[in-house]
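Inverse folding, one chain.
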C-alpha cells in the first residue's frame, strides 16, 4: 500500500511537471508571436502609441481578475520604492525591444535577449552578493562571445539598433534581479503594475508620436496586449505546476519561433553567424542554469 501511494505521488508530480512544461511552451510561443506582431506594427506606428493601445487592451483583460482578487489585495504594495525601480526598468526594456526590432531581424534581437540569464549571473555578484564559480564564469564569457557573433560588430563598433537591443537585455536582467527582491508580491499585482507602467509611459509620448490608424490597426495593437497577458498567465501557471529549474530552459524555444516567424512574415533568413551565436548563447545559458541548480542547497 505504501509503495502504491508513493508511486501515485511520483506519477502526479511527473504529470504536474509535464503540464508545467506545456504551459511554458505555450507562454513562450505566445510571447514570440506577440513580439512578431509588435515588430510588424512598429513599422507604421510610434512605439509609444503601440505601448499605450496594447496596455489599454491588456487592462481590459486584467480588470475582472483584479475585481475578483480584491482591489486592495492587488494595488497595496510593500516596498513601493523597489516596485518603482522595477517598473522603470520594465518600461526601458519594452521600449528598447520594440525600437530594436524595428531595425533588426526578430531572431537576432531574441538571440540577444537569450543572454539575459548570463547578464543576471554577472550582475547578481555586486547587486545580490552572490558568488560565481569558475565554470559559470567561463560559460558567461563564452555566451557573450555568442552575442558578438549574433550582432556582428563592424570595425569594433556596434550599430545603434544593436546597442539598443543590448541595453534592453541589460534592463531586462536588472528587472529580474529587482523582482527577486519582491517575492512576497502576488503575480497578478506584478502583471497589473507592469501593464499600467508601460501604458502610462506610452501615453506620455502620444503628443510627440501619434500616427493615424484605422480600426484594423487598433485591433492588431490591442491583440498584442491580449496575447502578452495570456503569455504571462501561461508562464505563471507553468511556475506554479513545476519548479523553475524544470520549465525555464524551455523558454529558449522562443528562438525557434522567432526564426520561423521572421522567415514567414518578414523574409528574414538567419545567417550562419547568427545561428552559431544563438547556439552558443543557449548552450551557455543552459550550462549556467545547470550549475546554479547544483549550487543550491537541497
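Residues assigned per position:
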Amino acid at each position: 500500500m505504501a509503495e502504491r501511494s508513493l508511486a501515485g505521488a511520483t506519477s502526479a508530480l511527473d504529470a504536474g511537471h509535464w503540464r508545467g512544461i506545456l504551459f511554458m511552451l505555450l507562454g513562450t510561443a505566445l510571447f514570440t508571436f506577440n513580439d512578431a506582431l509588435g515588430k510588424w506594427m512598429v513599422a507604421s506606428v510610434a512605439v509609444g502609441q503601440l505601448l499605450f493601445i496594447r496596455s489599454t487592451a491588456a487592462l481590459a483583460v486584467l480588470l475582472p481578475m483584479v475585481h475578483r482578487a480584491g482591489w486592495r489585495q492587488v494595488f497595496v504594495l510593500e516596498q513601493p520604492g523597489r516596485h518603482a525601480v522595477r517598473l522603470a526598468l520594465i518600461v526601458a526594456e519594452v521600449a528598447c525591444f520594440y525600437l530594436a526590432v524595428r531595425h533588426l531581424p526578430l531572431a537576432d534581437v531574441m538571440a540577444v535577449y537569450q543572454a539575459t540569464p548570463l547578464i543576471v549571473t554577472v550582475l547578481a555578484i555586486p547587486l545580490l552578493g552572490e558568488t560565481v564559480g569558475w565554470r559559470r564564469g567561463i560559460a558567461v564569457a563564452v555566451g557573450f562571445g555568442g552575442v558578438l557573433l549574433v550582432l556582428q560588430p563592424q570595425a569594433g563598433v556596434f550599430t545603434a539598433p544593436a546597442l539598443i537591443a543590448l541595453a534592453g537585455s541589460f534592463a531586462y536582467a536588472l528587472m529580474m534581479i529587482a523582482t527577486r527582491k519582491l517575492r512576497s508580491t502576488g503575480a497578478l499585482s506584478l502583471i497589473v503594475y507592469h501593464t499600467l507602467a508601460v501604458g502610462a509611459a506610452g501615453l506620455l509620448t502620444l503628443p510627440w508620436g501619434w500616427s493615424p490608424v484605422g480600426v484594423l490597426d487598433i485591433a492588431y495593437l490591442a491583440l498584442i496586449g491580449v496575447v502578452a497577458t495570456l503569455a504571462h498567465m501561461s508562464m505563471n501557471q507553468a511556475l506554479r505546476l513545476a519548479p523553475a529549474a524544470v520549465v525555464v530552459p524551455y523558454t529558449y524555444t522562443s528562438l525557434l519561433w522567432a526564426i520561423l516567424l521572421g522567415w514567414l512574415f518578414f523574409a528574414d533568413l538567419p545567417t550562419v553567424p547568427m545561428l552559431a551565436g544563438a547556439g552558443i548563447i543557449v548552450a551557455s545559458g543552459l550550462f549556467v542554469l545547470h550549475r546554479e541548480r547544483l549550487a543550491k542547497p537541497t
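Residues 1-13 have pLDDT under 50 and may be disordered. Residues 2-41 form the longest helix (40 residues).
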